[in-house]
Model the fold of this input.
Amino acid sequence: DPTWPAATDEMEEIVYQLQGFKGRVFNDVITPCNNEAAGPGRVTASEWLRVGFHDMATHNRVFGTGGLDASLQFELTNGENTGPGHNTTLRFLANYYSSQSSMADLIAAGVYASVRSCGGPVVPLRLGRKDATSSGSTGVPQPQNSAETFRQQFDRMGFSTEEMIQVTACGHTLGGVHSEEFPEIVPSGTGTNGQKQLDTTDATFDNKVVTEYISGTTQNPLVVGPAVAVNRHSDFKVFNIDGNATMNGLTSATTFRDVCKTVLQKMIDTVPSGVTLTDPIAPYAVKPVDMQLTLNSGGSTFLLSGYIRVRTTNRASGAIKNIKMTWKDRNGGCASGSCSYTATVQGAGTGFDDTFEFFPISTNIPTSSGISSFTVTVNLNDGTSESYDNNGNSYPLSDAIILQKPQSCLLQSSGALTVSALVRNDITATPSLGISYLTPRGVVRNGNPVPILSSTTVAMTKGDCAGPYTFYSASYTIAGGLSYAAKLSVTAGSNSDSFNKASDLSGSCAAFSGTASCTTPGGGGGGGGGGGGNEPDASSTIASSSAAGPSSTSSVVEVTSSSHITSSTTIAPSSTTSSTTPTATGPARKPTVAGYTRLRCATEGSGVRALTGASFAYDTMTLESCAANCTAAGNFAYFGVEYARECYCGNSLAASSSEAPDSECNMLCAGDATEYCGAGNRLELYAKHDAGTGTTATSTTASAAQPTATLGRKDTVGDYVFVGCQTEATEGGRALEGKAWADDGMTLEGCAEACSGWEYFGVEYGRECYCGNTLRGGSAPAPLADCSFTCAGTPYEYCGAGNRLELYRLASASSSSSSKTRRSRLERGRRL
Ligand code: HEM
Done:
């Protein structure tokens, strides 16, 4: 096992801890391999594999640019990446995007997972890829290219002619060509569901693509058929380039698997220069999962909770009797006299190639002596036992600073977050709260479905003492509707409790009861040296392994103020301070906000708005959220907030807007009472730090007014009321069986209209609409956070996710509607 905590811990969980107890369900939409999560004719696993190629294919080995860097998200409309598959893939993968899981690593993991799900080899997965912040070069091979062009393109990527043939054959064992994107190759109506497969087994990772080609029986539309006449038979041009020598070498199934393992690893390991990848990951034999300390009321003990996950892949079932966790107190001893806890199995989970058992930890530890580290003993039923001590280091678990979950809360509807931390009284450093969060790109830019990852640091305010600890707290509003995806860290000096999931917090903060008098912790002095907090922040390891990555001249500024966040690149130094939000102070003017500088209090234009680029209005408005909206909506040169809750963006300011006294911009922001947000007809006006250099390239398009809207749940849609986020059925078939359609223009309203007359409608995966009168067995309520996809047709509505329905029910269904009305509605619905 790697030494825990490691920078790869989160990805390890995503990739291996798939189903069952604590399953991360990363494989849900690609299992089974022929699953068509985005609609008929769209094999999701093959879309994931193709995304890996298209993202990598612009690599230039001489310049060290491009490669697997998630730049594809900015390249969806450049003509080389046609079809909905790239978008739906990125959108699904983005559900796992965080400061410890870059989009580029997730794309690589997607290649591993799709190949494995389809019965292919285990492609070794190395990690540490950096995300690009803007589009890269073009250069994805297109079917009309000549054989010589293909050779040159693959040479540029660092692939020999032989490897070009091999990797193309390995890719084209899955999926097919679609009429919608390539009508010259697959004329409309000639495929099944708009798709013609590349070999006879489009959902099995086998070498049929090779053997059918060699035997002359192939129906591969990139080898035979209409493509030939229009010179788009690219697989023929590639496969035949060396007189079929390489293809003949792949006719053995085992050779094909081995070769594909090698070339697909090469494909995902092709990264920009300056990115250093880790060794291939493997599931831990023993891993602490979600370990957390929580101070109990009264302050004399804390609860240690979490799980020890044990890999049981190579063990007989039921081989483990129990596990014993043994810890050391703050002084490295066991002052309380009892420092161990024994647990029996609570749940089991699986990955593609692994099984795991989870042993729950739940024990109280006196705060007077505390905890600093632990080891694990796995006791087997045959009387033997195995010891795990984290490679001789013990598993570190510091009680110097604790993110106290019961006294922390997140209101997901508004993103209002309050975090409480407990700092041991012998720690002198003042704690701060680090938030790493996602914001949707607002008005979707070039169809990029990946939200923006940002981070901010918020100072914490001292509160009551509770025994040997003191409370600190901080509040922040995570605008944009994705607050549940945030990750939270509390840090004091070298101690931290990191990467806590905001989705674990409840909607209201409980009061802490039974506060004891303030004491000095027994033993003392153990902080700082222990190497971090409950789960020390591991991301610095990844951060330090990277050097360059693409420069941050991107039009979307990734705001980062915390050095341990991995995805961002260079940022203006001023944003470090500007994104630090002081708490619990009186209202104040802010000189800078996330890359913008305050200009003045300004009037609207006479008869026109001062800023006409885009606008937003919501009740959680802050200067930061407006700045983020205007950055995401078009990297606008100016933003201004008016009337406490209205945000305006623009690249130019109406000439008739004039300066007003600051005293007239006197309304506090609806979402943060420490900030000023203009007034009636008065804008708190900010300009980009570099706005003096003139307007940006977006200025021409930006003048079109954008709708005033924000992303949020809708309580009612037409005649329907929101039920919640719901899983698909488990008993074969869909949760809603009445009627289905999928569309890239999907909205809740569109689905409601199509389902008119049915009792339920639900939207899944952003673009699939289902109607039905009953919910099939096994369909169960899921956390709202699961339904995280925005609708394909509007960025302002949620439309479920993979295997998750945004579910609505007729308002009249349960109460007022008479059976007669219902029947006629249903009849009407069925005729549709
Ligand atoms: C000369 C190089 C290549 C060319 C010209 C090419 C071209 C194409 C075309 C035109 C399609 C049809 C796409 C659609 O209609 O959705 C396709 C599908 C596909 N390609 Fe390639 N490709 C090449 C290499 C590769 C490589 C190296 C891989 C991965 C290792 C790959 C993976 C795939 C997959 C998995 C599909 C099926 C996608 C689906 O079913 O949605 N291709 N390719």
Observations:
- The chain has five domains: 9-268, 286-396, 401-524, 585-702, 716-831.
- Residues 716-831 form one domain.
- Residues 524-533, 537-584, 692-708, 814-832 have pLDDT under 50 and may be disordered.
- The pocket of protoporphyrin IX containing FE is lined by residues 43, 46-47, 49-50, 53, 83, 85, 141-143, 150, 167-168, 170-172, 174-178, 181-182, 234, 238, 267 (CB under 6 Å).
